[in-house]
Amino acid sequence: MPPRTFIDAIRETLADEMRRDPTVIVLGEDVGKKGGVFRATDGLWAEFGDDRVIDTPLTESMIVGTSIGAALNGLRPVCEIQFADFIFPAFNQIVSEAARMRYRSNNGYGVPMTIRAPYGGGVHGALYHSQSVEAFFTHVPGLKVVVPSTPHDARGLLRSSIRDPDPVLFFEHKKMYRSVRGDVPDTDYTVPLGKAAITHPGTQVTVVAYGLMAHYALEAADRVAEDGISAEVVDLRTLRPLDTETLLDSVRKTGKCLIVYEDNRFGGYGAEVAAIVAEEAFDYLDGPVTRIAGPEVPGVPYNHVLEEWFMVNPEKIAEGIRTLAAY
Amino acid sequence: MPPRTFIDAIRETLADEMRRDPTVIVLGEDVGKKGGVFRATDGLWAEFGDDRVIDTPLTESMIVGTSIGAALNGLRPVCEIQFADFIFPAFNQIVSEAARMRYRSNNGYGVPMTIRAPYGGGVHGALYHSQSVEAFFTHVPGLKVVVPSTPHDARGLLRSSIRDPDPVLFFEHKKMYRSVRGDVPDTDYTVPLGKAAITHPGTQVTVVAYGLMAHYALEAADRVAEDGISAEVVDLRTLRPLDTETLLDSVRKTGKCLIVYEDNRFGGYGAEVAAIVAEEAFDYLDGPVTRIAGPEVPGVPYNHVLEEWFMVNPEKIAEGIRTLAAY
Amino acid sequence: MDSRSTSSRTLPGRESRLAADVGLSDADLIEMYRLVVLARAIDERMWVLNRAGLIPFVISGQGHEGAQVGTAWALEKGKDWIAPFYRSIATCLTFGMSARDIMTAQYATANDPSSGGRQMPGHYGSHEHNILSVSSPVATQLLHAVGIALAAKIRKTGQVAMTSMGEGSSNQGDVHEGLNFAAIHKLPFIFVVENNGYAISVPAAMEVSVADVADRASGYGIPGVVVDGSDVLACYAAARDAVARARAGEGPTLIEAKVTRLTGHSSDDQQTKYRSAEELAAERGHDALPRFREQLRDAGVLTDEIEERLEAKIAALVEDATEYAEAQPDPDPAGATRYVYADVEEPG
Amino acid sequence: MDSRSTSSRTLPGRESRLAADVGLSDADLIEMYRLVVLARAIDERMWVLNRAGLIPFVISGQGHEGAQVGTAWALEKGKDWIAPFYRSIATCLTFGMSARDIMTAQYATANDPSSGGRQMPGHYGSHEHNILSVSSPVATQLLHAVGIALAAKIRKTGQVAMTSMGEGSSNQGDVHEGLNFAAIHKLPFIFVVENNGYAISVPAAMEVSVADVADRASGYGIPGVVVDGSDVLACYAAARDAVARARAGEGPTLIEAKVTRLTGHSSDDQQTKYRSAEELAAERGHDALPRFREQLRDAGVLTDEIEERLEAKIAALVEDATEYAEAQPDPDPAGATRYVYADVEEPG
Ligand SMILES: Cc1ncc(C[n+]2csc(CCOP(=O)(O)OP(=O)(O)O)c2C)c(N)n1
Ligand SMILES: Cc1ncc(C[n+]2csc(CCOP(=O)(O)OP(=O)(O)O)c2C)c(N)n1
Ligand SMILES: [Mg+2]
Ligand SMILES: [Mg+2]
What we know:
The complex is a heterotetramer, with 2 copies of chain A and 2 copies of chain C. By secondary structure, chain A is α/β, with parallel strands linked by helices. Chain A has 2 domains: 179 residues, 3-Layer(aba) Sandwich (Rossmann fold), CATH 3.40.50; 129 residues, Rossmann fold, CATH 3.40.50.920. Helices cover 39% and strands 19% of the residues of chain A. A 7-stranded mixed β-sheet of chain A has the order 3-2-4-5-7-6-12, with helices on both faces. In chain A, helix 3 packs parallel to helix 4. The radius of gyration of chain A is 19 Å and the shape is globular. In chain A, 72% of the residues are buried. By secondary structure, chain C is of the alpha/beta class. Chain C has a single domain, classed as 3-Layer(aba) Sandwich (Rossmann fold). Chain C contains 12 helices and 7 strands. In chain C, strands 1-2-3-7-6 form a 5-stranded parallel β-sheet, sandwiched between helices. A two-stranded antiparallel ribbon of chain C has the order 4-5. In chain C, helix 6 runs parallel beside helix 7. The radius of gyration of chain C is 20 Å and the shape is globular. The two termini of chain C are 37 Å apart. Bound molecules: thiamine diphosphate (2 copies) and magnesium ion (MG) (2 copies). One magnesium ion binds next to strand 4 of chain D. One magnesium ion binds next to strand 4 of chain C.
């Protein structure tokens, strides 16, 4: 296969899984005739019809809540939340219901459901079309949270998510949809949930990232290489469950850890990574566990000057690596 | 005044603030005639009447959303969410709306609103009447999050919250309502938002806690004192904004930090505290930043044996202190 | 359209007029009555146990049993689905749960089929019987039932999904979103509102803007029916018609049963603080149990002999369930982290 | 009951029949017409700027302007409140915002009064004019308007709060919860649904289970009115009556205006993918602008002379607003952390 864009990988995987398993359905706002506002579901309605590709009303709690019910009665719904920013009306259904169904029923019921949502900034989406919302869900036992960064991983992880017996939140950075390309094997491979990847081996500083930031971290690693600094990039891929082994092995080797995330810093996902590293790799640390993250404002502002100000970028990461390396 | 229970302090402060400021109203489920399921609003309806003490329908998004609107048009609503567990239907209104109104309108509009909610386990409340939900809100710029642990602080902090120009989440540990007593000055004092308190000075280990855990931390400090270990307890009181100064001063002094929270560990509030300490007090640390927190299950199970298993208690904290002190 | 073929075997000609009028057998009526009485007996025992300090919490279905048995009877056990709420003891019994199942939930025993002791009493559920696990946040289950109905339609299983909740809960946003979707897709879904006039202490006039929740149905283009919740057979008939519509692909129905709450909201509530003695006394007159009993006796379906037999059996069942539950071990904390996720190595 | 005392100064006797019939003056009608035309002219300019690559995003009110001006006209500026949505350009203009205000939002300038360049275009707001700041998650603003109305009632200010949104958004749970509460407390609240038949690509039949959203009103015990959104004066009359009810303490009203969406959902949408050329052509016939123009000309209210004057003025206004907005500086990132919380030291 020629290289695929990130969104190609997602669309093709959805189609594949629907062909493979007749219980997989897709539902969400504008996912049918229009093929999704980003066109991640383009062509599915034409191929699979009204029953399996459902244009829902504009009601997120309903989208998730009925997906839970459909999952309980023999289907594997893959629902789309049009923007991650609009997942909050469904928060109660996700956190109180989907996440707890198995535990509260003592394994009587499970919810095999995938919730896809485009997230992230840098696309002039402003406060409500740019958010990183992963931290709200990575905290919740019963959920799994996946954030792929390459077309290869998007395909392999989406397969694993759809086939998983429990609810998975699958966040796709919208800036990557068409800007990121890569090879995608034409096989039925999966990427297991809960496994991180070392995407750039190095020795001096571990840089932990995911999603778009995993790309920026690679760019930053290249930049600091010119300064003679060897950075190792860990692309987490799955945020819950976290692959602590790969993470800690890397930090124990490098002795330094920089965590990168796009969301505002305080209480973001990287806080947990930092806490784990600080506790479990303490004896190996040659410098403080540091973080590069978004500023403490309630969203990415719209004006391009403000948006640039907000966004983490390769240079900010490179600076963080340099500072830490010099520690 | 004789010593007051925790809930007395809250009820009396609500009444005081309503007497002082005619724009303060109270609304929520069963807050009127019944005086709240915990009776935190008992007597208010009799004193202030239907207009200022409103028994709402069973709809949390409406409770918060209309409070936002009322705040925009000249009132200071104090709304009650019957159990913190039931705040999720209002998540969108809190996170997308209340938290962002000022920022998105460039200071055009502010939302002076307080959301009170009983939280926490240990009262046979099971999965849905025991939750600690602070981590979902402490992450959000635009919100303030308060968790008092004494009647004195409850009164002083509730006053500050109601008088604050921005939305405040005020979480009250329901196990403390009638079990915790203390002196409450009969004055118009306030406790400022954003200031922690050292409730037990010590030299060897800093124990960071809030709410019920702040009491358990004190008990644990007493226990380890018998072993000759000097623990300093920091009661955070306000979780957002965090008083990093008091926190870091303490850790820089003791060189060791144990963070305690009742919520499940992964991505809980203590992760951020750990991350800050790990970064900003790194040079002072004589041991790993450690955490004692709830297990990774989606809620506190009901059966008393399971509930005991779940709950953090003074002995678990004391063990944590001992281990860290011995590091 | 007979959805209870197993329990209406006797010939129609030999049935009472009462039974024949609603298309049931006398045996059906007696079994329905037994369920009402059994639910009440278990419920009353729960309060005794609570006052004796043996179980810390009770939430009761007293006053709702007639509507619950009547509506649930219209479904086909083992095929259709029910997403009940915390007062649904009679619903769950009708749909296949046993007295022991209900009582182990009160004691939160290791083998409590609803949750293995993890949830509060009142949060029933049974995978075996297609009874969805109850959670506490109200009204969420409506969407699950709608989703179950969606899957039934897509998979062409012929199943119907029914959910129930109180009138207070029916004001939650999820209800609006679910009814809209179910109506658009004409899903085989039935929404039962058990209107007891209160949401804890808040009277209906303060929590629902219309006198009848059923009035909301027309806003979704679906039928809304008000039934007297103390009239078991009227409840049954309404549900039977709704099931017929659902199976015929005609879409959802809203059934509002006017019931009464004979107890406080729960064992934590003192309802005399907000309800007058007169009101409480008057509400006793709206109890389905004595009314159904009189009706069956008048129709000659319930005889002294049958009644005595039922009474004895139910007393024994409740006794057995209590002793059984009390003897069961508490859950082992070693298993408390299980089933957060599917347990691939050791399937449950 | 005249809520527009400032703009209906001319004597009734000297007014056209058209104006008199709805209790307005000819000057009112001309001003209303001006607002419709101005909104359209600004909107069209936005698309030009977008296609020229000068502004990255447009969300349009074309096809909604008549309903917006008609309904907003019934409120009292500077006293009542409006919680609008992203298509509400004409609403905001009617309620006091200027062409410059709208255009600086497109350019996201530092002095954009809606958000200082922080929000996407379409997210208008003005504290000065009691226009609530628009957010993106749909329907949330309904509850804010209900809360504003609650405060108005408690504080006895005599204010009315109006909110508007699309028919797709009206299915959100917040709408149900808000209408229920507003109806219970008979709040001075008006809910305007601008039904353009689509939620992005999803046609009304797939997103609303009834033909008229107004049918949902009866489920809350409030009046629901359907008006032709291309009939500006019918929209005004409906809103005027709703305002009268609200001020008289009779509670909320739901007004559904049937409008049309003349453009794609936004500049990111290609509507030909899901709407036929015939449909799009037919929808042009449902535009309030030419209809209102004809109506005013037929009534003798709008003359060639007035029209020419208006046209010139509006062209100049749009030109001025564009040049002005284009010349304004971008926000300074140094201020980007301000107003997360109230800025006690340096009040804004
Ligand atoms: C979302 C949510 N908010 C609040 C509660 C607390 N609560 C439990 S039952 C109840 C009242 C329910 O009233 P209704 O729906 O009429 O049912 P009833 O108890 O009267 O049968 C309330 C407020 C809850 N369980 N869930
Ligand atoms: C909660 C939420 N979900 C999804 C969206 C994305 N979205 C923006 S507008 C829109 C369609 C709105 O349709 P309608 O309410 O009919 O208004 P219209 O745009 O047709 O005027 C959608 C799905 C959103 N803004 N908010
Ligand atoms: Mg009720
Ligand atoms: Mg629309």
